[in-house]
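Exercise 7. Given the encoded structure of a 195-residue chain, write a plausible sequence.
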């Protein structure tokens, strides 16, 4: 797991909220640290478990964590994770992990249709809707925040040439994602509709 430096909530119980990513699958995690009476308490899990993690620290430390403290931690978490990470549940992670294992098993048994089906189902779990005015910037920022190292982008159709002195969306993604591997692939679905 890799984490950012985190931020302190500054409430009655000062908690440090760090945004993390699991290295194996790139799933988001949070780590909460709380200094109560000179003892450091730590809890970690999916972002959706924030209320459970704060309650665990409160129970273990014998200190009440106020709703204002939890709200401050939630605001820090929401600022770090964009794209619905706080809505992900542990069942999603378990399903994703199981489907990836199944895909690898089918692939090793040369059952490529079964492997493709398992990997497609795993990808459905990981689908996100991103919102932002600058599409390339929003996409690349989301990828960085979530530890994504490979992007697959559809090549623009021939009828979608950029205006003079303007870059295409793909060119902007490539320019912004210099620290990632960007694969530009043909979009056969668009070509079929255009004909």
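Solution.
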């Amino acid at each position: 797991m890799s984490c950012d430096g985190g931020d302190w909530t500054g409430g009655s119980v000062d908690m440090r909220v760090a945004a993390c990513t699991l290295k194996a699958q790139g799933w988001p995690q949070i780590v909460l640290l709380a200094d109560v009476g000179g003892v450091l308490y730590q809890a970690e899990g999916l972002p959706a478990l924030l209320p459970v993690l704060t309650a665990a620290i409160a129970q273990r430390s014998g200190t009440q964590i106020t709703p204002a403290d939890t709200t401050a931690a939630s605001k820090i978490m929401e600022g770090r994770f964009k794209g619905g990470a706080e809505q992900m549940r542990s069942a999603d992670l378990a399903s994703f992990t199981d489907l990836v294992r199944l895909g690898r098993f089918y692939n090793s048994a040369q059952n490529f249709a079964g492997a493709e089906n398992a990997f497609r189902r795993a990808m459905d779990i990981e689908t996100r809707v991103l919102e932002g005015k600058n599409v390339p910037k929003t996409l690349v920022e989301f990828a960085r925040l979530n530890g994504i190292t490979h992007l697959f982008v559809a090549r623009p159709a021939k009828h979608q040439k950029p205006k003079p002195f303007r870059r295409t969306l793909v060119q902007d993604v490539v320019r912004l994602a210099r620290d990632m591997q960007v694969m530009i692939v043909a979009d056969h679905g668009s070509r079929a509709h255009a004909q």
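Remark. The two ends are 47 Å apart (CA to CA). Students should compare their own answers with the one above.
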